[in-house]
Amino acid sequence: MAATVRSEDPYLYFTWNVTYGSVAPLGVPQQGILINGQFPGPEINSTSNNNIVINVFNYLDEPLLFTWSGIQLRKNSWQDGTLGTQCPIAPGTNYTYHFQVKDQIGSYFYYPTTGMHRAVGGFGGLRIYSRLLIPVPYADPADEYWVLLGDWFAKTHQTLKQFLDSGRSLGRPSGVHINGANAGLEPLYTMEPGKTYKFRICNVGLKDALNFRIQNHPMKLVEMEGSHVVQNVYNSLDVHVGQCFSVLVTADQQPKDYFMVASTRFTKKVLTATRVIRYTNGVGPASPELPPAPEGWAIEYYLAVLYAVLCCAEWCDIIAAKSVLLLAT
């Protein structure tokens, strides 16, 4: 009788030391939350079906939990890091998360869930690659870059928590950041002319939707919320809180610096952050003229993204017909 031998899916092990530290997303130092001394926190790079084991040491003076936004946690719902399904990690202690990214691909992020800790850091990217035997509907990019966007409050997380506990709103954010900084002329990333790069974009903020664009560089949307989508090209993308996109960007412009731009949407006062992308052989600074964000409720854009996400063989015609009717009203 033949015996079937099955190997277990691979394990990835991480150790996180969570501490307070100085951060300056808006250029002014304030107390933030670091993971292994990093802000934003370390990336988690995994492949579909990997088992992820993270030993979290809490060196804060407050209880702590982490959640994994968008991860299904099948048969592991008690690992989702929210009060009610998991007890918080007490100060000076540790806890080991263990979950499997079963049958998932795409761009996600993690963040702390207790005491408004998310407002001052502790977040980072979590990517899940497709297994080699499952083809991806686009060529491998030259490199991949995380773009973690968010609104930011100059107030401490304790003050923001007191606001909510007393029934007050958070108020307006103080600014916007891209990967933990609001501006700067040094390059965040570099691109080689003629090559295509994958940008994984997530809104890790608290309340405001953000529009993201890159000077003179259209973006091909290829993945959203863990699903491959109809590949349309956009000059900008609205990224709502908790949402993640993956786009392809080709370095086919004049070799120099270009700004990545994130700005608030649907707010009276528009807050903006910029970071630089530099061509490897680039000469010259980025133009100070930033690409404009769309105004108002861009219904055509919204329907195009909805179509890209939901469209499949049996639903394309139905969605297209309903989109035409909605635009006509």
UniProtKB/TrEMBL annotation:
Domain Plastocyanin-like: 17-131, 144-281
Keywords carried by this UniProt record: Oxidoreductase
Enzyme Commission number, as recorded: 1.10.3.3
Keyword Nucleotide-binding attached: no
Family listed: Belongs to the multicopper oxidase family.
Protein name: L-ascorbate oxidase isogeny
Example of a GO MF term: copper ion binding
Pfam families tied to this protein: Cu-oxidase, Cu-oxidase_3
InterPro entries per record: Cu-oxidase-like_N, Cu-oxidase_2nd, Cu-oxidase_fam, Cupredoxin
